């Protein structure tokens, strides 16, 4: 993400709707309460209307456009009108299927976890753009629904990505809490590997990326320490039990990483030493009950206002 | 990921098909060449067959089951038979839609990047389980296709996750190269934010998570250094231009992180210092042209064989 692009966040008319709050920092859309209300009003009107079965949803599109445009015009905001027109152009460029839908995937911007997958129609995407809350079209209930409208666990959308075919979208955002109705962080907790190879070793086996998997293992080592065991403790447990050892290892690994640069060592050594540093500092995070997601959120927030660079350039 | 579960990888009859290779390490399915060939044979037979339009694909399921089962039986492998039966049970548990499909999302296990999204029918999922290459059902061509069969950029699948409704799956894996036919790392490179707020500042604006975004920005700072500029360099540029400064900062930040544990500082301090350490060490990685993905791959590989713990417990 380019700092210049991120700096464009504070546009006039920005007013993020209530609820949530975990989503600040990073890329975001300007939100106009007027436009959002217009979309919500439209949503009420269309709730029981049949969905267009044609590939083009242009009829409902222009209706939605004019509703939205007139709301903005009454606010006398030319910029808002231009923005609405851009939203319409964007909605027109999406390749809706014969039911007027595209696949919509919600992803946690910090951890990369895929939280859930649903479908979006033109109205759902427009609502997500304007409200910044991940919104889908329920095929079973034939209605819009915003994730979190019942649970209050909204997904605060920072950016939306379209794929090369423009028929699949990602809502990249920050969830306020667990996304799955079961209380799990993500809806994807059934591992095919587990089902084929044996029973689940743990309930928290999610579709986790490498960093989250490593964190989960370190956390389990910490839990196991409390269940006193006779067998030789693992290296992770040793580190968790001995603060001095852990701290000296973090310092040592930082020194070894630095050496690879100063002494022009092979780049594979750099990757290996960075892996060591990352692992040992993640053990320290676990010792302090800090999640890597919190660290990434700190980075994202600083980064959004180019805080790291700004703070340090003043030194 | 639990080390015990990861250790189950080396099962009898494992023989990963040719091609690719970047996928090693981490969770994986046992692959039987016999079973895979049976599935491929079945695939040829069914290529021009109509897709079942009923919600249950049980007819083609049992056909596929018996083809697969007989191939295994000829190998006289009871374990393989049990495995096949488990695969069938699993395929039966998926909630295929009225076209016999589910949404299938391919995700990079290390970076968390969503690479592409397609659809899978029963045969595509079975093929992916057995071949460990992400395989989809093309709705336009009405045929199976394995990502990479033309480009050789396979997605080597390490595990598959089903969502709570069992109608959406993640192929969690490691790509051999760029996934998108445009040559982009992922198919999701069109940012709605960019389209609404202004032109793309860079071509490499992908649906990137926080860590990848930070890395991209640091890389751009490095490129900008080469394009000599008169304005005051950013902090990142200063670090990239001054090895000694960069190295002393990495050591300093490691020391500050360690202090938060030793002196029982607030956990928000720990998150903040870890963010500093991560940022500065990522600048070092960029200076050495090492991608964070390479570091994560090192961690995953060690982790899969519990290498970190094993190596260190011997010390």
Structure description:
Chains A, B: It holds the Pfam family PRA-PH. 2 copies of one chain form a homodimer. With 315 residues, the first copy, chain A, is of the alpha+beta class. Chain A folds into 3 domains: 37-86, no CATH class; 94-208, Phosphoribosyl-AMP cyclohydrolase (Ubiquitin-like (UB roll)); 209-313, Helix Hairpins. In chain A, 48% of the residues lie in helices and 14% in strands. Chain A is built from 12 helices and 7 strands. The first copy, chain A, has a 4-stranded mixed sheet, with helices on one face. A two-stranded antiparallel sheet of chain A has the order 3-4. In chain A, a hairpin with a 4-residue loop joins strand 5 (155-163) and strand 6. The model of chain A is unreliable at 1-28, 30-34, 40-63, 200-204 and 305-315 (pLDDT under 50). Chains A and B meet through helix 1, helix 4, strand 1, strand 2 and strand 5 of A and helix 1, helix 4, strand 1, strand 2 and strand 5 of B. Strand 7 of chain A pairs antiparallel with strand 5 of chain B.
């Amino acid at each position: 993400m380019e700092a210049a692009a991120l700096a464009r966040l504070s546009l006039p008319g920005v007013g993020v709707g209530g609820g949530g709050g975990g989503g600040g920092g990073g890329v975001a859309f300007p939100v106009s309460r007027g436009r959002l209300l217009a979309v919500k009003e439209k949503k009420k009107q269309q709730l029981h209307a049949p969905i267009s079965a044609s590939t083009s949803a242009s009829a409902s599109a222009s209706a939605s456009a004019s509703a939205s445009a007139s709301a903005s015009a009454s606010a006398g905001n030319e910029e808002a009108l231009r923005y609405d027109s851009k939203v319409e152009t964007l909605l027109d460029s999406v390749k809706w299927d014969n039911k007027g839908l595209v696949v919509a995937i919600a992803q946690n911007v910090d951890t990369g976890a895929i939280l859930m997958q649903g479908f979006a129609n033109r109205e759902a995407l427009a609502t997500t753009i304007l409200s910044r809350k991940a919104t889908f079209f329920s095929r079973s209930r034939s209605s819009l629904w915003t994730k979190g409208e019942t649970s209050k666990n909204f997904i605060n959308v920072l950016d939306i990505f379209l794929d090369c075919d423009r028929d699949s979208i990602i809502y990249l955002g920050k969830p306020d809490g667990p996304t799955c109705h079961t209380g799990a962080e993500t809806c994807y907790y059934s591992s095919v590997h587990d089902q084929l190879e044996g029973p689940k070793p743990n309930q928290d086996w999610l579709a986790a990326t490498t960093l989250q998997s490593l964190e989960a293992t370190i956390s389990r080592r910490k839990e196991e320490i409390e269940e006193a065991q006779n067998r030789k403790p693992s290296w992770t447990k040793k580190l968790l039990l001995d603060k001095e050892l852990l701290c000296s290892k973090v310092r040592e690994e930082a020194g070894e990483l630095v050496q690879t640069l100063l002494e022009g060592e092979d780049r594979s050594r750099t990757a290996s030493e960075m892996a060591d540093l990352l692992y040992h500092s993640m053990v320290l995070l676990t010792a302090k009950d800090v999640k890597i997601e919190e660290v990434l959120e700190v980075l994202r927030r600083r980064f959004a206002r180019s805080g790291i660079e700004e703070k340090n350039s003043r030194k």
